Amino acid sequence: EIVLTQSPGTLSLSPGERATLSCRASQSVSSNSLAWYQQKPGQAPRLLIYGASSRATGIPDRFSGSGSGTDFTLTISRLEPEDFAVYYCQQYGSSPYTFGQGTKLEIK
Amino acid sequence: EVQLVQSGAEVKKPGESLKISCKDSGNSFPSYWIGWVRQMPGKGLEWMGSIYPGDSDTRYSPSFQGQVTISADKFISTVYLQWRSLKASDTAMYYCARGPSGYDGSGYWSIKGMDVWGQGTTVTVSS
In this predicted model, what pLDDT tens digit does every residue of B111-127 receive, in sequence order? Predict the structure, then answer.
């Protein structure tokens, strides 16, 4: 089973700043099958990025994903007030399709 | 537009059985994997397992193997998550989600993560 470790656990930033979230896998993720999700309180998760770097339909271009192998990054170039939420990475290259523990992005 | 609509909240006692559902109102059924994800109160997301309704191929996380059963009825575009004997520790929100792969509207095999999510079903198990 691939274990995903996200860092930091909590990130405190202000609107307009740049956010960098990390996801590290315990072994190489097959075909860069890595997704990022955003979850706001009381809502279902929403797919942001798939295939490590492809934006899902309707996702603003301030969200970008990068990385390969075992190290992946989600970058939000300029934070908007609606971006403060919890972010999860998930690998779907090999079953079980594990999630990271999440990074909470909070307003500073 | 693909939509996954889940059954309503449930309150059960320990030892009772339960089956919750997830209906696909779009046209991706039965050609897309559908998965179940657990979120315990205040905690993160856990992938439980997935089913391909076209042939009922099913995969489970080792953490949930033997604890739940995932099934599908492709004739009514519905996927199920079932427990035979609930425990208090099953109290959680359960989401169904489409993906990570399946045939898209153009007939191509698409691998895009879990791109459509149900609204969630709250399950509370308490004596």
Answer: 999 999 999 999 999 99
Nearest CB to B115 within list A31, A47, A95:
A47
What does the block give as tokens for B50?
Answer: 């997935």
Please state whether the peptide bond connecting residue A96 to the residue before it is cis, i.e. omega within 30 degrees of 0.
yes
Residues B25-54 have pLDDT tens digits of 877 778 899 999 999 999 999 999 999 998
Euclidean distance between CA atoms A39 and A46, whole angstroms? 6
Q: Smallest Cβ distance to A45: which of B62, B112, B117?
A: B117
CA B18 vs CA B15, B77, B90: distances in Å: 10, 19, 11
Phi, psi (degrees; rounded to nearest 5) at A69: 70, -100
Lookup result for tokens 């097959």 = A30
How remote is the C-alpha of A92 from its chain's centroid?
A: 14
Choose the mutation target among B22, B101, B111, B112 for the interface with A, i.e. most A CBs under 10 Å.
Answer: B112
- Using a 10 angstrom Cβ sphere, with 0-12 exposed, 13-18 middle and 19 or more buried, the burial of residue B75 is exposed
Q: What are phi and psi of B64, to 5 degrees?
A: -120, -10
